[in-house]
Design brief:
95 residues, alpha+beta, Alpha-Beta Plaits, four-stranded antiparallel beta sheet, 4 helices, globular
């Protein structure tokens, strides 16, 4: 199943309600599961990004729909990238 990493930055709204972030994360995990997307991991971080999600979904559309719903809530901005394991990447670059 394709995997994605989503890098998160708090918006001003999200930063003001930072204490609610763990509760919002659990709500996102539940909503993603209902949409057929598995949240493999959720992390809070320091530095340029405030959080990281690792997701797996049967289709890119499912994954990006969940991430767009997350962004639409207004607490974070997202940057999402598809991940490739070694064999997948080798198949891409070797044709």
């Amino acid at each position: 199943m394709p995997k994605y990493i989503s890098l998160l930055r708090f918006t001003e709204k999200g930063a003001r309600a930072i204490k609610n972030s763990p509760k919002r994360a659990q709500a996102f995990k539940n909503a993603a599961a209902r949409a057929g997307v598995k949240v493999e991991a959720q992390y809070w971080s320091t530095g340029a990004y405030d959080g990281i999600l690792i997701l797996s979904a049967a289709t890119e559309k499912q994954a990006l729909h969940c991430v767009s719903e997350l962004a639409a809530a207004g607490n974070v901005r997202t940057e999402t990238l598809q991940l490739f394991e070694e064999k997948e990447f080798a198949a891409i670059v070797n044709g």
